[in-house]
Structure formats: C-alpha cells, structure tokens
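REVIEWER CHECKLIST
Item 1: Sequence provided? yes
Item 2: Single chain? yes
Item 3: Sequence as submitted:
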Amino acid sequence: MTPNDFTTDDDLRDYRACRLCPRRCGVDRTAGGIGVCGESAELRIAHACPHFGEEPPISGTRGSGTVFFCGCSCGCFFCQNAQISRQHAGTARTPAEFERLCRDLLGRGVHNLNFVTPDHYWPHLRAVCRRLRAAGHTEPFVFNSSGYELAERVAGYAEVMDVFLPDFKFADPELAARCLNAPDYPATALAAVRAMVAAVGFLAPWDETGAEMARRGVLVRHLVLPGQVENSLAVLRLLHREFGPELPLAVMSQYRPMPACAGRPPFDRAVRAAEYAAVCDLAEDLGFHRVFLQQLDDDEAFLPDFTRPGEPFAGNLRASPNP
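Item 4: Structure as written out by the authors:
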C-alpha cells in the first residue's frame, strides 16, 4: 500500500499505530502488521451483493448493496460470519477496485450501500464514500457493525454515513468477557449507540413493510443467545432506560451454533422457543413498538457459506428480482 492509493495522507494515518477500534492494539498496519482485527492495511473484501436479509426498510424490493469486509475487532466465537471475520476468507482490493465495486452495486439499483463490520477499514471507507458523494450519489450509506465502537469516532463516521445498524450484544460484562474477551463491551457499546443517536436520530422514515426505505438514523439489533435470557432482558431494560420506547429495535432469533461452539454449552445448541418468547414479551411490556421480530424456525436462507461459489446466501437467490 502506498499513499498514492489514497486521496490524502490523512487516509493512511489511522492505520499507523492503529487505534481504530476499542482494542487500540497500536499495530502499524501500513507496514504489514496484523491488528487484533486480523487484518493489515490491505483492504480485503469477502463478498458484495444486493442483500435481502436485512430489515424491510433496509433491504426493500431491490436489496441492500452490501459489502462484507474481512476481519473483525470483536471476535465473538459464535459469529455466523466466522469464515470471513475469524478465518479471513476474502480477496484483496485496491481503493479503485473498491470504488468500482460500490458503483457497480449502485448501478444495479440497490436502495443503499451497506458496509458490514467496517470500523477497522474506516480510512478506505471514508475515502471511497467521499468520492461517491462528490460524484453525485445520494443513496444512503449504512454503517453495519458489532456495536463495539469508539464513541469518539462516531461523529467522523456520521460525516459520510446516514444509517447506523449497531448490534447490542451484551449487558453482562462477564458474558462479554467469556464470548469476546471484552468486559468493557456493555459500556463501550452504550456510549457508541448514544453517540450514533445524537448524530443521526432514530431510523426514519419508519415503515415496517419496506415500502418506504430508511434514509437516516439508528436501528439497534440484539441477537438472543441460547441459555442467556437474563442478558437479553438486561439489554432491553438498559436500552429502554437510555433511549425510551421509541428506539427502533430488531430482536433476532437467528443464532446457529458454529463449529467453534462445540464443547461450549449452552452455545452448542439453538435458541429455544421459550427463550425467544420471553425476550419478545419484555420488549412488548416495556412499550417498544418499533420492533422487528423473527420467526423461530430452521430456515437457514441467510446463514452464509462464503466458500460456496457465487452467492453465499441462498435467500438472496430466492429474493432477487434478477437472479
């Protein structure tokens, strides 16, 4: 990687003594060093596609133009994207190739550009988004993340990002330490979501059907984990106390045990119907009314296999108007 790959030296600076995520590993990724995220400063992308697995006001009828980056600073052992977040399957891309990829997605009529796990590649993303805006593209840009973000970076993200889709995984520091060696996750994620809401507000317009697409704002996602109902209930209470019942939420049941979950009960099983129902019931009791829920079933249409040739999501093949 050379400075000529970027618009200014500022785009490279954040990779030196890297402090892009809460791990603050300090690695010089421009010299080929590998950060906690598992990546150097060489941009690596696993897949890009019109994606139909997001909430209706994000996916709509034409899909969300989704870019899946390699690596992750979070490192949950149960990650459903483990092939790319932990095993780092993907392809190196120059900034110019990244920009062409984004333009190609927009040319296919997607409703937005959706960047999955982007924080450790923020210099690349910021530079390309600025160029796309300068070229006249007005589609929303989506920052789709683990929630484990530095609150002080959110204002910079919001200069080019329109929609934030953060996870809020844990209210229990001990569980966060067990799952991703980050007991600071609850406090860090709460500060980050607070900064996101301050920057762009709640997701708007709000249309549960997807007939009207979201243009701006925050929607918080929470994945219910097997055997961890108390953590989920604590997450909902915490979010209600901080943001009130107007906060848009997605309460997800899509947990599937990954190979790394073997021998780690209860993470080696699926979520039970009673567990998911208890969390949904509390969401209703607390008065949350902008909530997306999921069916608790065995459909794995949006469980990816990034080793599959072509499209890793079977659900995208079903949903795409132009398969």
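Item 5: Key structural point noted by reviewer: Residues 11 and 87 are 26 Å apart (CA to CA).
Item 6: Recommendation: ____
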